[in-house]
Structures are given as structure tokens and as C-alpha cells.
Design a protein that fits this description.
The complex is a heterodimer of chains A (about 300) and B (about 300). Helix content of chain A is about 40%, strand content about 15%. By secondary structure, chain A is of the alpha/beta class. Chain A is globular, with a radius of gyration of 20 Å. Chain B is an alpha/beta fold. Chain B folds into 2 domains: about 25-170 and about 230-300, Rossmann fold; about 170-225, no CATH class. Chain B starts with a helix and ends with a helix. In chain B, strands 1-2-4-3-5-6-9-11-10 form a 9-stranded mixed beta sheet, with helices on both faces. In chain B, strands 7-8 form a two-stranded antiparallel ribbon. Chain B has helices spanning about 1-15, 25-35, 70-90, 115-130, 145-155, 170-190, 195-205, 220-225, 280-300, and strands spanning about 35-40, 45-55, 60-65, 90-95, 135-140, 160-165, 210, 215, 240-245, 250-255, 260-265. Classes of the chains: A alpha/beta (about 300), B alpha/beta (about 300). The interface between A and B is large, with 60 and 53 residues.
């Protein structure tokens, strides 16, 4: 198995990517996998996990492509100034168009019948946004530590009304927040002292929340992103999710899964990795992810190959 | 969302159909970016990923960048891309590469040692000399790469040497990396079992792998690192060299001789965690470019 470099002009940027593919294998009609940058890291990611995924899957006949998005790694484009500004731009769709364009181009050039898209953290955000906005474009999603939460530590200065802020808050703002949708969500979902007192009423309150807002998520969850996931799920698109056990995203994903329709056609495969961190660099995360992604991808790609 | 969808439809419309554009068109890419990313087939087996940044003005030198390894590579990547583009604008063909077992290059990290990476650097230096004949070859090493570049220089390769933040040895670099890794684990994963560096070393010496920042270190890496101390150029060295140490103090020259310059530059260590995507290294770049100018002038080999 050899790697090769792709240099593609996409939407006025010169993108550099790495292709993992068995030289002798025919891939026409197959499903390929596109992995996006883990946050602003180069396309090899943190501790080269995406590289290992590429090698492992390619050895099983699944072509894998990793591209540096504009401004990152070896690609052209304006680099982000700070991690926080990059994060905000990702939430606002910085990488959505280029990701969609890459999916289309990969299908054209390699004759793929479909493309699974994914990656870690910010990559999972872009994946959900694109897959949720374009029904049927993406064959599956790989969500590693998907950032489903608007934590104050994640986005310190975001000003939109449905997002958390870490700026100093005045008494007036606190009062306004007290009666905000977010605060009511906290009550309703048992995430506050008042909610604890009202525990016996909780099942009824949750039903009311579901009726009013269409979900039962906590107030600091990224509801629009979750809605994308729900749409993907409703379309029957399979999801592979990997989280660090016991950490923030584990709690968020578990909570989000409770709000996904249990009878939806989409299938969610969740693995919870013990004793690791958000970027999956500690403990045995690498081997666990590799085995699980391989198992999931083989199953999903076989399904699509036989269907086509 | 509708506007966003329209933008995406427009984005798709801009993609040329496959029969009008070759699958992979490196010549177009080079003409637009002055760079060529690709793989060298390593004589030791495997593929060495490299990016050549071609000089955008009259070519005066060729620079081989021997970068940091492991996590330090990931964090410093934007700085080296920026530095490579700056060097290309200054008339230097610049080659950066990934050591085998790291990043885009093939091979398993756990099978590699600093000696293997030294071979990679020597191979890339020879390739760069072929790509850019007739101009001085400058070796530039940073962190682990500084140890490698200095050894290569001591063996007679290259016409000049630039080192950024060299550790005293491979052993001290790994020892320090272990300390930072353990501290990070304590903060980010307080539930994980506590270990000390001595315990990790005992595990290594027993022949098991240890996970440091997601890279699996082997006993061979540990043992081999002890063989690589900083090969500081001798006082009698006739080729130009420059060692830059990073600190929070004012920029100052601390040692000079006929061909060598050692100085402190005030800048943030860009290979460490930072909230910035690419921490400012302006003073570091300026100090290094000043030295480039003087060493190229002294060397008198520029094309």
C-alpha cells in the first residue's frame, strides 16, 4: 500500500491532500472516506491518528483521503489567527462549502459511489453541518469527540443569543439570562437546583420541552448542530461516534442520543474510550479507534457496495 | 440556511468536470504556489513526505528544514510553512520533510530512532542538492531537528548551519517531553493512574512501549537518543553557523567567533501549546534572515 499526494484547485484555493489506496485495487463504485483537519492541526491530525486510520482502512480496500482545508497545513488560504476565532468560523460554516466541493470532486475523479466524511472535534462539526444540509450527499459520518456543546471553555467570546459567553456579565444580563430559553432548558432537563427540587415533575416537564422545542437537550448543547445530526439520522445515514469516556463529549453525546428518535432509520455506533483525552492521544485510544473504525467502515461500505 | 445552500450550489458549479482537468496536476499547482509536495522513496524503505518551496526571486541558496518530532511537529507546522514561504521569497529553495514514522511519511513511529531520522535528513539533503545545484546548502534544525542537522553538519554535509532552540541531547529532549506529557495528563485526565518519569523509563527499559502524547516510544528510541548529543560546531569550524536560543529576555548576541554566532532571541516557543494558531516569530525570522545575508555574503558561493 502506497500513499500519494493530491493537489487540487478547489474554490480558488490550492488544497493538498493525501490518498491512501491499494495500488492494485479498483475503487469504482466503492465508498471512500474523507477525513478533515482536527481543529487547526495539519491533516495528519493529533499524533497522526487520521494517518493510521487511512492506512488501516486502505489495507482493507477502502480508499481514504485526507485534505488540508484552506489556510491549514500545506494548503493555500488565509490561516486562522487564533484557535478560538477558528472555532467560531467553523461553527459559522467556514469549511462547509469546501468540504462539499471535495466530496463532489472525489466522487467525480475516483468514481466513488459515496463518501463518508468525518474527523475529530471541529471536523465533526463541519461533517454534521454539511451532511445535515445536503440530504443524501454523504454516505456516513465519523464523529470523533464531536463538539456538540457550547462550553464557555470552548467558545469564550461568542455573542449570538443561543450560544454561551465567557464575557463578564452584568446583573441585568444575569436577570435576562435567568428568564432565557437556555435557563429554562436547564430547569427542564434537571441541570439546576430548581430542577432537582422539581424532580417528580421532570418527566412531564421533559415532555413539555419536547413539544415546545423539539428536543430534550441541555441549555449548553449546540442545538442547531444536534438538529443536523437528527436530520442525518432521519435520512438513514449511519453515524460512527467515538468519545473519551467520562469526559465532556461523552456526556453530551449520551444526552444527544437520548434525544435522537429511537425508531429512526439511521444507525448510531458509539464507542466510549476509557482513560483518554479529548484529542484521543492518551491510553489505548489509537488501537481502540482503529479497530472500531475498521469494523464499522467494513460493514457500512459493504452495505453500500452491495446496494449499488 | 437557504443562502448557505445557494453558496454551496454555486461552489459545486465551480468544480470543473473530470474530463477537463487532470486528476492531479502538479505543474499547475507549482505555477500558482511555487511549491511541490510529494514523496521521496527512502533507501531505507518507505516514503518520505516532503514539500519543496521554490525561490520566487533569484535563487541564492537551498535550505533543508529539519523540524521537530512528535507533538512539537504538529504545533510548529504553521510556523514552518510560514518560514518556508518567507525563505522562498528571499531566494532560497526550501525543503521541509517529515521523518519516517511521523506525519505524512510512512513507517511506524515505534520502529524509528533518531539515527533513522538522521538518515532521512541526509537523504533529503542529497536530494535538495540535486534539485538546487550550484548554490550553498544551508541546514536548518529545530529542537530534535537541531540535533540532527548539527550532526549532519559535523559529518561534512552542508555549507552553513542554523539551529533554533537546540536541546543539549536527545536524552534531555525526551526526558523533558515526558515531564510535560505527564503534567498535561494530570490536568486533562485527572482520573488516569499517576506515573513518574522513572516508572516510564523502567517500562521502556523492560522493552515495552510507552505512550507519550499519542506517540509510542520504544526502548530503541530511548537508548538511541542517548547517543545523540548536540554536535556544537568547533571553534575551528570554517563554515558559517548560527545557534538561536529562545527566551523571554531581550535579543542579544552572546557568543561569536570568526564563523559562528550564538544569540538569544526573545520569542514564544512556537512548538509548545498556544492559543494562537501561529505565534509571532518575527524576531526569530529577522535574526535568522540577518544571519543568512551575512553568511551568504561571507560564503561567496551564491548564484
Amino acid at each position: 500500500m502506497r500513499r500519494s499526494i493530491l493537489t487540487w484547485r478547489i474554490l480558488d484555493d490550492d488544497l493538498v491532500g493525501t490518498c491512501h489506496m491499494q495500488a492494485e485495487s479498483r475503487i469504482d463504485g466503492r465508498i471512500g472516506i474523507l477525513l478533515l483537519n482536527s481543529g487547526p492541526a495539519p491533516r495528519s491530525g493529533n499524533s497522526d491518528l487520521p494517518v493510521h486510520i487511512g492506512d488501516r482502512l486502505a489495507s482493507r480496500g477502502i480508499p481514504v483521503f485526507r485534505f488540508d482545508l484552506p489556510g491549514l497545513g500545506d494548503s493555500s488560504g488565509s490561516p486562522p489567527a487564533e484557535f478560538n476565532t477558528y472555532w467560531l468560523e467553523v461553527l459559522q460554516g467556514r469549511n462547509n462549502e469546501v468540504t462539499l466541493a471535495l466530496v463532489v470532486k472525489l466522487k467525480q475523479e475516483f468514481g466513488l459511489s459515496g463518501v463518508i466524511v468525518g474527523g475529530l472535534c471541529a471536523a465533526a462539526v463541519t461533517t454534521l453541518q454539511v451532511a445535515g444540509s445536503h440530504a443524501g450527499t454523504i454516505a456516513g459520518v465519523i464523529l470523533m469527540e464531536p463538539a456538540l456543546r457550547f462550553g464557555e471553555d470552548i467558545i469564550p467570546n461568542f455573542s449570538q443569543s443561543n450560544m454561551a459567553t465567557a464575557l463578564h456579565v452584568s446583573g441585568k444580563t444575569k436577570l435576562r439570562q435567568l428568564f432565557s430559553v437556555r435557563e429554562w432548558l436547564r430547569y427542564l432537563t434537571g441541570n439546576s437546583r430548581v430542577a432537582t427540587m422539581l424532580r417528580p415533575l421532570r418527566p412531564h416537564l421533559v415532555r413539555i420541552q419536547l413539544l415546545l422545542f423539539g428536543h430534550t437537550l441541555h441549555g449548553d448543547m449546540n442545538v442547531p448542530l444536534f438538529m443536523h445530526w437528527r436530520r442525518i439520522h432521519a435520512q438513514g445515514t449511519p453515524s460512527f461516534v467515538a468519545v473519551a469516556e467520562g469526559q465532556d463529549m461523552d456526556r453530551c453525546v449520551t444526552h444527544a442520543l437520548d434525544s435522537l428518535p429511537t425508531n429512526g432509520p439511521g444507525k448510531v455506533t458509539l464507542i466510549r474510550i476509557p482513560q483518554t483525552n479529548h484529542i484521543l492521544t492518551s491510553g489505548q485510544a489509537r488501537d481502540i479507534v482503529l479497530d472500531a473504525v475498521e469494523h464499522w467502515s467494513m460493514a457500512e461500505c459493504k452495505i453500500h457496495v452491495s446496494a449499488s | 440556511m437557504t443562502g448557505n445552500t445557494e453558496n454551496m450550489k454555486s461552489a459545486i458549479a465551480h468544480i470543473p468536470p473530470s474530463n477537463t482537468q487532470p486528476l492531479n496536476n502538479p505543474s499547475d499547482f507549482r505555477s500558482r504556489t511555487n511549491t511541490v509536495p510529494g514523496f521521496f522513496d527512502s533507501p531505507g524503505g518507505g516514503q518520505i513526505y516532503n514539500v519543496v518551496h521554490y525561490a520566487t526571486t533569484q535563487r541564492r541558496a537551498a535550505v533543508l528544514l529539519c523540524g521537530p518530532a512528535g507533538t512539537e511537529r504538529e504545533r510548529s507546522y504553521p510556523t514552518f510553512v510560514k518560514w518556508s514561504r518567507e525563505l522562498a521569497n528571499q531566494g532560497c529553495d526550501t525543503l521541509r520533510f517529515d521523518y519516517r514514522g511521523i506525519g505524512e511519511s510512512t513507517g511506524r513511529f515505534e520502529d524509528m530512532t533518531m539515527t533513522d531520522w538522521l538518515e532521512d535528513a541526509a537523504f533529503c539533503a542529497a536530494r535538495l542538492a540535486k534539485i538546487s545545484p550550484g548554490v550553498p546548502l544551508i541546514l536548518h534544525g529545530t529542537r530534535a531537528g537541531a540535533l540532527i542537522a548539527a550532526e549532519l553538519f559535523a559529518s561534512g554535509v552542508g555549507d552553513a548551519l542554523l539551529l533554533w532552540a537546540p536541546p543539549t541531547s536527545g536524552h534531555s529532549l525526551l526526558w523533558d517531553t515526558m515531564r510535560r506529557n505527564l503534567a498535561t495528563q494530570m490536568m486533562t485526565n485527572p482520573g488516569s493512574p499517576r506515573q513518574t518519569r522513572d516508572q516510564l523509563v523502567a517500562v521502556l527499559e523492560a522493552g515495552e512501549l510507552i505512550n507519550v502524547d499519542g506517540y509510542f516510544w520504544s526502548r530503541n528510541l530511548w537508548a538511541d537518543a542517548q547517543l545523540h548529543s548536540l554536535a556544537r560546531p568547533a571553534e575551528t569550524e570554517s563554515r558559517p553557523w548560527h545557534i538561536v536560543r529562545i527566551n523571554n529576555l531581550a535579543t542579544s548576541a552572546i557568543n561569536t567567533n570568526s564563523q559562528g554566532l550564538e544569540e538569544h532571541v526573545r520569542t514564544k516557543p512556537f512548538w509548545e501549546d498556544s492559543p494562537l494558531f501561529c505565534p509571532s516569530s518575527d524576531e526569530l525570522f529577522s535574526a535568522s534572515l540577518r544571519w543568512f545575508e551575512s553568511s551568504l555574503h561571507v560564503h561567496g558561493k551564491s548564484a
